[in-house]
What does this fold into?
Amino acid sequence: MLLGLKGSISELELHTIRSRLTAGLLAKAERGELAVMLPIGLMRDPSGVVVKDPDMAVQGRLGLVFQLFLQLRSVAKVMRALNERDLELPRRDRYGDLCWTRATLAAVAAILKNPAYAGAFVYGRTRFRPPKREGALPQKAPRPMEEWRIVVKDRYPAYIDWPIYEKNPIRHQR
It folds into this structure.
């Protein structure tokens, strides 16, 4: 009986520790200080402050993507315009090194949908959906902007203004 009681107390302690860790993570996220993976064009300086990538080619190309989208109003047209001009998009390879690749619909859409480019730290943009069939894994799904858990505006240097980002129709799509 004593072993059973010790086991129950251990499980309670684990639950308490996990709750405290989660609360700490959420507190950091609410302050916009949670160190999440930054998109290309944003990086942390040695002190941990988020700054624009010092590579002017990267800044220029990201600015061009947003400028083209404001003019053309279509992800496909932006991709086509970049590819017709032989302008590649910056990416990070698996080692974190900068490389340039041909524009794709997914790459252009990912840039346009990311609120970090509007200067906002966002936590809780996705949720897990229950599996559709037994034995399958839960699927990650985007949440509508109104359901994002934490939004801290003006946390990062912006490539576009927040009101422009909010009006962006692509952010509503999957």
